[in-house]
Amino acid sequence: MTPSPPPPPPKEHQPVSETTVSDPTRLPSHLPLNTPHRFYCGGQRILAFRGLDVPPDFDDHRPEDWLASTTRLFAEGGDGVTVLDDGTRLPDALATDPDHWLGPDHVAAHGVEPGLLTKLLDAGERLPVHSHPDRAFAAAHLDCDHGKTEAWIVLDAEPSACVWLGFREELPPDELATLVEAQDERLLAALNRIEVAPGDALLVPGGQPHAIGEGVFVLELQEPTDLSVMLEHRRFGLEEAHAFLGLTVPRALESVDRGPLTAEGLAALRRRWTDVTGVGHALPEEAAAFFRAEVLRATSDAPATGGAAFAVVVAVAGNGVLTTGTDATGTDATETVSPRTTEVARGDVLLVPYGAGDVRLEGDVTVIRCMPPV
Ligand SMILES: [Zn+2]
Q: CDD domains annotated for this entry (predicted)?
């Protein structure tokens, strides 16, 4: 029999208590659906992916599922923040124990903010041509530390479905202003058109104009803002104040990369995430300053492992078992973490706190761990 444990140390050195560690919100948990109403249509692929029925009153304007979000919509009602299954808003949960949720290194570098917005996005129609400010523009004109570099990990796509990214030719400022004023099809026609298929991944740097075509279903990683310059807005019925972030049109257009985005530049932004065997990055290296998308692909004879991290874990293929706490003693010497297994299958979306420890994936299953930058 093991001897009884020593008495607890004085309060200021109190380790995380057993009751706190066993609190289910501190272990891998399934993320509830979080689909705010948007101006464009879509959403059925999200429900299908997550194995949910389409409700009879489905309004077809739920095209985005905001996963582990601490971000609010810029307009359209301001929803978006994740509420955990126990009713706690995610920012409040993080604030109760930042080191456990995010890890002490992350908290020291970035504060009590994941610094990441992860979404499932189902384009039920082509999205408007838009761009997002980069960090420098957001800091100078929007009083915000984050721009909105984003990345698309294509999970599903209709045959011949496509996305558009970057102007093919350089557009002088007055020509961009003319196209935005005209609000016709020339704006889309000026962009690189890229056919996409499941397995594609693209990084979309802040400033680059883009659109996602109808029938494309992506896992999307973004800097945690909802700052968009809606270059195309009239056909979507968006107010100018919403379309241009409350800035004057000329000022807002200064945030747009007028190109060109060449074939070579485009190639540098692309990857095939399905080419990863074992463990590897879904996105180009340049993404690492903003977020990390790590593919863990386990096969029947080779598990895949990952280090402790705050992560949105999205199972994208197959099924198997995710074990957390495989480092047994936990990531913090004061904390006891028992290994814990969770069955995972395509469509499952888990939130895994840093304090849950190292992870091991077994079975015939692929997950993508969406994580803040290091
Ligand atoms: Zn975008």
A: cupin_PMI_type_I_N_bac
Residue that finishes a domain, picked among 215, 246, 274? 274
> Looking at the structure, do residues 123 and 258 belong to the same domain, yes or no?
yes
For residue 163, the CA-to-ligand 1 centroid distance in Å is: 11
How many Å apart are CA 257 and CA 170, to the nearest integer?
Answer: 9
d(CA 216, CA 63) in angstroms, rounded, equals 11
86: Cα separation from own chain's centroid: 22
The pLDDT tens digits of the residues spanning 90-130 come to: 999 999 999 999 999 999 999 999 999 999 999 999 999 99
Span from the CA of 194 to the centroid of ligand 1 (angstroms): 15
CA of 297 to the centre of ligand 1 (A): 28
User: Ligand 1 centre from 185 Cα, in Å?
Assistant: 18
Distance 132 CA to ligand 1 centre (A): 6
Tens of pLDDT along 212-243?
999 999 999 999 988 999 999 999 998 888 89
pLDDT at 51 over 80: yes
Helix (H, G, I), strand (E, B) or coil at 233: coil
| Half-sphere exposure (Cβ direction) of 189: Cα atoms closer than 13 Å | 5
Ligand 1 midpoint to CA 210 (Å) = 6
The tokens describing 113, both together, are: 């903010």
CA angle (57 as vertex; 52, 60 as ends), nearest 5: 75
Mark residue 43 as left, alpha or beta (left: phi above 0; alpha: psi -120 to 50; beta: remaining): left
The enclosing domain of 359 has a CATH number of 2.60.120.10
CA 150 / ligand 1 centre spacing (Å): 7
Q: In this structure, how many other beta carbons lie within 10 angstroms of the beta carbon of residue 10?
A: 7
Residue 305 alpha carbon to ligand 1 centre in Å: 31
Which has the closest alpha carbon to 203: 152, 162, 157?
152
